[in-house]
Amino acid sequence: MENSETVEKVSAAIAATELGTTHLRVLMLIKEGILEGVQQGGDWFVSRESLDCFRAHGGDAQAQRTCRTACGGSCASHGR
Q1: Least enclosed by CB within 10 Å: which of 3, 22, 38, 75?
Q2: pTM value?
Q3: Which of 54, 47, 44, 53 is nearest to 73 (CA)?
């Protein structure tokens, strides 16, 4: 994750709720590099941008990874 002080982030628990999944699944998505995450003080946080990108692609990790690489998160699929 870029400078973790300036990136908007949400807790892994909130990310799980927004994705309709479990906290453990969010941690696995971070480990797999699908979501950008950082650990702070024993808790995990996900960048808002990577969470929004993942949701914009319907939770399709491959489509999200390809798009994020190609467009840097700035395509119309990201609701911007």
Answers
A1: 3
A2: 0.73
A3: 53
